[in-house]
Amino acid sequence: ESRRTMATGVRHGASIQWTRTRGSVLSCCSRSKTKAAPTFVDPSAGMRMKMKMKMRMRIPVACSSSSSSSSSVATVKEESSGSTGSAYVAGSTGRTGQRVVRELVDAGLKVKAGVRSSDKFRDTFDEILSSQDKATRLSYEMTSLEDAESLERGVSGADVVVCCLGAPEDEFNFDNPRRIDGDGTIALIDAAKASGTVEHFILVTSLGTGRFGWPASILNLFFGVLHHKRRAEEHLLASGLRYTIVRPGGMERPTDDYYKEHKMVVKGEDTQFGGQVSRTQVSWCVKECVLNPAVCENKVLELVTKEINPGKKKDEAKAFEEYDTSVIDQITKIKSAGDPTVVGSPAWYTAKYAYTPSKLDALVRAMGFKGTAPEVVNGRLAMLALVAGLGEELVSGKPIGQQVV
User: Fold this and answer.
1) Strand, helix or coil at 127?
2) CA distance 226 to 220
3) How far apart are CA 272 and CA 211, in angstroms?
4) Contacts of 82 (CB under 8 A, 6+ apart)
5) Sheet of strand 110-115: strand arrangement
6) According to the model, what pLDDT value does residue 391 have?
7) Is 45 a residue whose pLDDT tops 70?
8) pTM exceeds 0.90
């Protein structure tokens, strides 16, 4: 009846001005029948009032009969961020992979571990399998990097794939980096792409894969491992999958308690070439990437640490104090690299018109002072010299130190 009265007033050259407060807007959203009393004003204000009413009608208002507008916004944000229910972890029984598996299971996700030995799977995750609650969330799939069908079975049904593959340092096999870090990881990416269920691929590689830098690039002495890791990264970028590339610093020396004295720091692509981080800290970062895909997708994250109490001797250091180990705020600040497969996007133009050096340019750059060739040649010669010195020590009993002098 009030709306009919207002329409009648406008037709007769008059307008009705409604006094709307914040409370009246909310009551309107909840379909309350309470209305403010009409006040008749100057007829010349009719057109202005009509325009204001139209503008108000165009403003979307989140309405709920049981919650406030702020909770409605939070609900929309939660739905848009997506959720992950199941994960496939490749390299799950390795030193980094097994820590990732434990973190994801503890977070409540269903995890399928890609393994080569069922016995090693049971030995590695005996604690989880002994737990009545956790055991139901962990399964395994026997896979081989050379068997495409086994990889397809492994990633089948998974929402996210975490790749922790890496050539073992204790195996002296020059073909391992190509077979595992390169071709094997590429085959896994192809299987994830073909699955139709995988929405996010997280690849753990290393510092120094994107650009030469000291001391990270010295890892190429290990049969070009960084070169093959970069091949896998580039294949992932071109796959069209939503991705997160995690590049940790040195993980050999830090123990699981390393975080007590060193806090993890997340940096952008090709900015870090030295530094250390523990495998446990890497697993924390991977878990946050799995649980927050909307924040982490299409980003390259380089992980190092900083000392919490710099300059302190061990006997002077303060007792360990718990702190927030989450790095999601740092990840949020990292700029997305974008998807180069989307035609017309900035990442697409960057990939399309990227500088490609000629063979001569590549040769000159590699042989230069900062190139990789002198590093590789000198490294190989140093290794041969060390082997020769050890042989001489074994034959004649003369220590290497005396041989050098």
Assistant:
1) helix
2) 6
3) 10
4) 199, 293, 294
5) 138-142, 110-115, 86-90, 160-163, 200-204, 242-248, 299-307, 262-267
6) 74
7) no
8) no
